[in-house]
Amino acid sequence: MSIPVPQSLIDFIQTGSKFLIAGHTEPDGDCVGSELALCSVLRRLGKEAIPCSAGPFSRTEVKSYAADFVTAPTDEDKAGARVIVVDCAHLERTGDLAPRLEGLPVAFIDHHKSRELSPRQDDAALFIDSASPSVTLMILSLIEAFGLTPAREEARLLFFGLCTDTGFFRHVDENGGATFSGAAKLIQSGASPKETFALINGGKTLESRIFAGRVLSRAETFFDGRLAVSYEKYEDILQFGIKNRDSDSVYQMLQSIAGVEAIALIRQETPETCGVGLRSRDTVDVSVIAAA
């Protein structure tokens, strides 16, 4: 079953002729796949579409896509354009793109629970579904809402994003029938699970494995083993490079520890600033913490 697409988004697309498609910084497979597939379908609808990202493309599985994105849209790019932001509902999360996109008509497509908008975005067209396992599955529904089926490359990109956000379906529970129905549609349109698995899990460097091991060596548990916490130092980034950061593998290994229900990974991004990544199982809603 397709995810219902708001008429406001359909109207936003139908009445526009040029679109800048943006996503969050440090894009993952869901963000990259959603942006590029959406650009492709918009072009099939006769629109001009420009994929934009502030990067960096530090994850191994998305590095090859970096050249497909514009990092700083020009005034010519922006002239007459509308903006669609995927995989986040805050313009600020697009990083250095945000000031370049401000003032343009905007729509958001996101599946995260933390979706409060800043006041100047109150009139944005919204397609928000926190029950969807990925934004790429929402893009599939958008394609179908226009009476189309995914082209082969679109299917490949959408399946890639679906697999990265679900841990290749490890995070799908007993309510995930619609997820596999969507996956079946994408496979029928040309996506290859075998190819996608190799793209996501291959190509790791030795340095990335050592880096992940160092972060794992610092892990501690709290609250009777229900919370696992670890951290990266700024010196780690200087030694290994951000290109060798593999947070997904660290999260996966910490989640495999018996009794762990939530994970906090603290990353020192600069000598003065830190970021925190949160993951959980079924019993803890980390989006409440992220929105605080």
What is the fold's blueprint, element by element?
Layout: H1 7-14, E1 18-23, H2 29-44, E2 48-52, H3 75-78, E3 82-86, H4 98-101, E4 106-110, E5 125-128, H5 135-145, H6 152-165, H7 177-188, H8 193-201, H9 206-217, E6 220-222, E7 227-232, H10 234-240, H11 247-255, E8 262-268, E9 274-280, H12 286-291
Helix pairs in contact: 2-5, 2-6, 5-6, 6-7, 6-8, 9-11
Structure description:
This protein has twelve helices and nine strands. The protein has 292 residues and is α/β, with parallel strands linked by helices. It has two domains: 7-199, inorganic pyrophosphatase (n-terminal core) (Alpha-Beta Complex); 206-291, Diaminopimelate Epimerase, Chain A, domain 1. A five-stranded parallel beta sheet has the order 2-1-3-4-5. Strands 6-7-8-9 form a four-stranded mixed beta sheet. The chain is globular, with a radius of gyration of 19 Å. It starts with 6 loop residues before the first helix and ends with a helix.
Biggest β-sheet strands, sense, barrel: 5 strands, parallel
Low-pLDDT residue spans: none
Average pLDDT taken over every residue: 93
Tell me the overall shape: globular
Indicate the radius of gyration in whole angstroms.
19 Å
Quote the beta fraction: 15-25%
Task: Throw out a few tags for this protein.
single chain; 292 residues; alpha/beta; inorganic pyrophosphatase (n-terminal core); Diaminopimelate Epimerase, Chain A, domain 1; 2 domains; five-stranded parallel sheet; globular
Short description:
The protein is an alpha/beta fold. It is built from twelve helices and nine strands.
